[in-house]
Every structure is written in C-alpha cells, then in structure tokens.
Amino acid sequence: MISSVKPTPSSLSATSTGGRRSIPTKLQFSPLHITRSCHNQSFINSNVSHQKPLHISSAENLSSFKREVRVEAYEADRSRPLDINIELPDEQSAQKLKIGIYFATWWALNVVFNIYNKKVLNAFPYPWLTSTLSLACGSLMMLVSWATRIAEAPKTDLDFWKTLFPVAVAHTIGHVAATVSMSKVAVSFTHIIKSGEPAFSVLVSRFFLGETFPLPVYLSLLPIIGGCALAAVTELNFNMIGFMGAMISNLAFVFRNIFSKKGMKGKSVSGMNYYACLSMMSLLILTPFAIAVEGPKMWAAGWENAVSQIGPNFVWWVVAQSVFYHLYNQVSYMSLDQISPLTFSIGNTMKRISVIVASIIIFHTPVQPVNALGAAIAILGTFLYSQVNIQSLVV
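RESULT FIELD:
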C-alpha cells in the first residue's frame, strides 16, 4: 500500500548545502494529511527518503482527527510484521445449536406425553379433568422449585398478569380442544390435522396483524391444506368432535404463540418461568369449567373403573402424562424465548412427524394408503413452507 506523508515545518528540516539533506527519524503528522493524500491518489514531494520502510508503532482511533501517529524509520532487518489476532465467536452457530437442542428435547418429550396421554384417555375418557391435572401438576412442580430455590422465582407485577391473561385463555382453549380431539380419534389423526397450524399462523398474521408474505409462502400452504383434507376424508375412525377439536386447537395455539411473544418482549421473566405463570393462570381458568362440564361424580366413577381395568399402573400413567406435558411445554417456551412465532409454528409442525410415526407403531393404528398419502402431502407441504419461509427471511 502506498501512502504519502506531508511533514510539518516543525518536524522536518532540509538543507541543500553541499547537496546534503538531514532527515529526522521521527515524524509527526496529522491523520488529516493521510486522508487527503490517499483521496487524491498522488505523491507529494516531501523530500523524505524511501529507502527505509516505515513502521507504524502505534495507531489508535484513526477516526479521531485530533490524534497524532508516530512513524519511525527502521532498518529492513529490524522491522517486524504486525501480528493481530482477533477472535470473534460465532454467535450465530452457537444460537442455532442451542435452538436445535431445545427442539430435539421438545420433540422427544412431546412423543412420550402423547403416548401416555392417549393411554389415559382410552381408560379414562374425561379430557377436561385430564387437562386440569396436567396444568395442576406443572404448577405444583414450579411452586416447589421456587420454594426450594431450584429455580429463581420471577418478579412480576399487575401489568404482567394482565398481559398474560389473553395468553392463558388461548392456551386453555387449545389445550382442552387438543385433549378432547385425542379422546375421540387416533393420536395420528389429531396431529395430521394439527399439522395445518402454519396455515392458521399465516392467515392470522395476515388478517389480524397486517403482515404480508411472499407468494411462495401462500402457495406452500396448498399442499398442507390439501393433505389434511385428504387425510380427514379417508380416516377410518373419523369423528367430527375430534376433527373440530384439532382445528380449534390450531387456531388457539397460534394466538397463544403470538400473544406470548408480545408478552415476553421487554419482560425480565424467562421462558421457563413465563410458562409456569401461564400454567397457574390457565389452571384457575379451566378448573371451574371442568367441574361444570364433567363434575366430581363422573370423575369418581370413571377413576374407579379405570383402576379396576388397568390396575395401579393407571395412576402412573396419569402422573407421567401430567409431568411430561409440563416438561415439553416448558422447553417449547424456552425455544419461543429465542425465536419468532412463525419459526415456532414450523418447529411445532415438524415435531408432529415423530408423534404420528410413534403413535402408529405403538397403538397399531390402521392406516389406509390414501390416508397415508394425505399425511405425506401435508408433511411435505410443511417442509416446503419452512423452506420458502426461511428463504424469504434471508432475502
């Protein structure tokens, strides 16, 4: 790189007596001179010998024109290369790895929950009480964690709980609707219908939030909707209550995710504690409705019947489905704390592939070829949707 130096009168003196010139070994100059010289791309005859390389001993804050740079002339064998090692951590890769671990844990816990939840509902067909027990178990777990200081209790105020209320309403509706659906139809069918959640997410974001998406995003919804419709039409054990429960759950959870992301902005409450508070408020909302719809008498008779048929294992099934329900939701909210609601819906949909496959294998669910084709089309549509959505965000 070529640079020119314009010496100041105080720092450079040259005489022509006897053809001799005296050149100082240290020069002081303003960075403004360097900037102008580089801009003009021209040499200024400064009467400085260029037989010796210039070595910059210190250069700090070149953006400030009030600093001076000291330049010293060294012999070639004394000059040392400038060795600068700047280590920049790859924060994006670390963030992706963190989210990937969240997603893998979330999906594994969800598979276990769905298996035990279906076992409980097959023996004890009371989805309102089952949903209530899930929320109660999670609330109890977090209260114990806060009391024993395993987890730090959140610092909340009245505004926090006001903001949380619509989230809790949407969460309660989505949770009960999904449980009702699984009590009426196969787990695989419920999750095939719930794989249409991206369509609900886009429609809600478009008409309620005013967001717009590229044309490929809208086109990718067609196979999702078409695949879900084909799977529903060809379902051997189709039930309208089960179908509508899955559809209502889709809509409710989309609103929950959107409200949750807005409610978590600017708050000091972590994703784990946020879901804990959400569970407690949802429990307060759901309990009176569960008592009104089903009631203690029905629960007592159903519980006695289930224990007589299954044995003591039924109690462990209830405990397992309640614990794993809280754990998988807690991890999902830890993921939501790091990503957007739309990305959350994508991960939630891709999770259903493992749930569908696992439930078909464990419960030996009969699947017709056309029904399987519909599920495959819906899943393929979800994959295309995630791809075009990511590309649109990159562009």
